[in-house]
Hints:
- The chain is mainly α.
- The protein has helices at residues 15-28, 32-43, 49-60, 69-83.
- Helix 1 (15-28) packs across helix 2.
Amino acid sequence: MCMSMTRRLQLLLDEERYSRVAAAASAQRVSVATVIRDAIDASLPPSGQSRAVAGARILQAEPMDVPEPEELRRELDDLRARRS
């Protein structure tokens, strides 16, 4: 992806975080800045994109057996009761 960089950002990281980012950059053979931009894109997708990605994942999912509505309702009630 080629994009015009128009903003400069100074970011201070502790050693542990920097080590993680630098290790990822080295493993991927990219710059530390690229790893940080990719992390931002993954965490904060452009508005509307996260819904589109979620929809695509749902449509690509393997078919699965779904219980009858009453059985499903009981399962959900059991799960809700465990949270309390």
